[in-house]
């Protein structure tokens, strides 16, 4: 991909990267905001959620005591225990019957990495699908989703737990993984285990699944689905492709992959970054004058992303800086708008208050219950964020058509009020994706997605591909619309998502 473009373009973008003055002159000349450095951007992300991890990344001294789970049986690659959370409202069910598990997996192809996970057996049937959830960032723990989105319980103000009636364990055997290494309770004593691309991330997840299904052979034949949001728009397609490849090569336990779902994700940056100004103008965040000025960066951004391709290096870093001028300039004009949900305002740097997560997980009783020992909880890591910098602008859509052609389902859903991974950009890359059913998908009607006889979203489907725009939701759909999100999961895994209504509605403009 890089060789197909002119050397002059490559040199121009490299110059922008290597010379801060050149990048500054580009932004200053157009009256635009400068792109933040990755460390600054990552810190901003973490502070916006009111999170203050004591350590930036889980790299421990090799001589230090690790987690108590693995220490109990150091010879096993995967060790887990059943647990019950302290301060959890009584369910009248025993720990054994509840089926909540915490575990560590010694990552096979690593120097010393251990991956932490939580597994919640279905509150329905053990024959329900196995669903894995991946939180994005990159570098944020999946415990964010456990307690604030679609897990079995939520944290009350007094740090007690209350049951979430719309937890996805109502319809699935639910897995949450802290990844990449260094995130959440996952850790290593060797900095070489910090991952930098989807090759490392997807292999770690695949190896974990092999160990997990060996530990739970009764679940190995269940349908399997991969889900997640935000930067998981990168993780999920790479992971799905890795599972599919492993199945075809008969590498180990066959994983019954049926589908993957991306919520408000970053998947095809070239299309999605170009959509920022259109979405911002449509929603009244910027003026027409702002739009025209900021759009002058779209061309250089597109060239930079093409140079990055799927395996670029310096050009991928350049594209991060060039393209994020677009987003930074929109935010600079929008004031204190919450870019995860434009209906809301941020107070200073605070956009959401997830601080109870750190308070809860740092309690000795909780840590003992989970078996994490002295391992610190890193809610979000800017070291992991920066380590994935060369991966940021790579296009992960390229591997999806092969999965669709082989009958693996894809659901892309997006809350309509999210700016950072907005529905418009997601809709555009889904529509532009070339596969055998593309024309039929583009021509298919939109239908209302009904929950309790009310329209909770707008759905478009053909064959294995579905796109759902979710009403009254921002970046975190399961948090904003928990009932609709659970219904979405149920119908999608049961194959009835597109059968919710009989009468189509007219197309939404600009789809």
From TrEMBL:
Matches recorded under InterPro entries: AB_hydrolase_fold (IPR029058), Peptidase_S10 (IPR001563), Ser_caboxypep_his_AS (IPR033124), Ser_caboxypep_ser_AS (IPR018202)
Gene3D superfamilies xref list: alpha/beta hydrolase
One GO term describing the cellular component: vacuole
Enzyme class: hydrolase
Main location, first listed in the record: secreted
Cross-referenced PROSITE patterns: CARBOXYPEPT_SER_HIS, CARBOXYPEPT_SER_SER
UniProt-annotated location(s): Secreted
Pfam family name, one: Peptidase_S10
Enzyme Commission number(s) from the entry: 3.4.16.-
One Gene Ontology MF term: serine-type carboxypeptidase activity
Keywords: Carboxypeptidase, Disulfide bond, Glycoprotein, Hydrolase, Protease, Secreted, Signal
Record GO biological process: proteolysis
Signal peptide: 1-24
Source organism, top-level taxon: Eukaryota
Family under the similarity heading: Belongs to the peptidase S10 family.
PANTHER family documented for this protein: SERINE CARBOXYPEPTIDASE-LIKE 49, SERINE PROTEASE FAMILY S10 SERINE CARBOXYPEPTIDASE
Function: Probable carboxypeptidase.
Protein name, entry field: Carboxypeptidase
Source organism of the structure: Morus notabilis
């Amino acid at each position: 991909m890089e060789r197909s473009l002119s050397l002059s373009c490559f040199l121009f973008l490299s110059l922008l990267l290597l010379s801060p003055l050149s990048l500054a002159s580009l932004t200053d000349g157009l009256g635009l905001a400068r792109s933040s450095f990755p460390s600054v951007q990552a810190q901003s992300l973490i502070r916006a959620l009111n999170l203050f991890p004591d350590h930036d990344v889980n790299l421990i001294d090799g001589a230090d005591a690790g987690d108590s789970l693995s220490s109990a049986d150091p010879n096993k690659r995967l060790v887990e225990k059943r647990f019950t959370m302290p301060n959890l409202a009584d369910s009248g069910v025993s720990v054994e019957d509840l089926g909540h598990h915490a575990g560590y997996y010694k990552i096979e192809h690593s120097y010393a990495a251990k991956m932490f996970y939580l597994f919640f057996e279905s509150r329905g049937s053990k024959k329900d699908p196995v669903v894995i959830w991946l939180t994005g960032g990159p570098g944020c723990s999946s415990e964010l989703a456990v307690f604030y989105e679609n897990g079995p319980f939520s944290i009350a103000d007094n740090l007690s737990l209350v049951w979430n009636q719309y937890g996805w364990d109502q319809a699935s055997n639910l897995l949450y993984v802290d990844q990449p290494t260094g995130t959440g309770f996952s850790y290593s004593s060797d900095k070489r285990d910090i991952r930098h691309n989807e090759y490392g991330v997807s292999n770690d997840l695949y190896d974990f699944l092999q160990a997990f299904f060996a530990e739970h052979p009764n679940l190995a034949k269940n349908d399997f689905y991969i889900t997640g949001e935000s930067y998981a728009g990168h993780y999920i397609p790479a992971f799905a492709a890795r599972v599919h490849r492993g199945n075809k090569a008969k590498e180990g336990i066959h994983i019954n992959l049926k589908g993957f779902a991306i919520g408000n994700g970053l998947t095809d940056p070239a299309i999605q970054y170009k959509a920022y100004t259109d979405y911002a103008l449509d929603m009244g965040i910027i003026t027409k004058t702002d739009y025209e000025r900021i759009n002058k960066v779209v061309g250089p951004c597109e060239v930079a992303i093409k140079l990055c391709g799927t395996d670029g290096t310096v050009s991928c870093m350049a594209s991060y800086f060039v393209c994020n001028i677009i987003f930074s300039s929109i935010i600079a004009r929008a004031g204190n708008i919450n870019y995860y949900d434009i209906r809301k305002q941020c107070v200073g740097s605070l956009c959401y208050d997830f601080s109870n997560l750190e308070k809860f997980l740092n309690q000795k009783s909780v840590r003992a219950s989970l078996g994490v020992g002295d391992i610190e909880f890193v809610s979000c890591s800017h070291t992991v964020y920066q380590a994935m910098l060369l991966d940021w602008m790579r296009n992960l859509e390229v591997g999806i058509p092969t999965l669709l052609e082989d009958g693996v389902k894809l659901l892309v859903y997006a809350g309509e009020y999210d700016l950072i991974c907005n529905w418009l950009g997601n809709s555009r890359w889904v529509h532009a994706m070339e596969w055998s059913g593309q024309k039929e998908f583009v021509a298919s009607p939109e239908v209302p997605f009904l929950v309790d006889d009310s329209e909770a979203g707008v759905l478009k489907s053909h064959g294995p591909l579905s796109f759902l725009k979710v009403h009254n939701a921002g970046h975190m759909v399961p948090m904003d619309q928990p009932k609709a999100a659970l219904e979405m999961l149920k119908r999608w895994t049961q194959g009835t998502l597109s059968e919710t209504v009989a009468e189509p509605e007219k197309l939404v403009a600009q789809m």
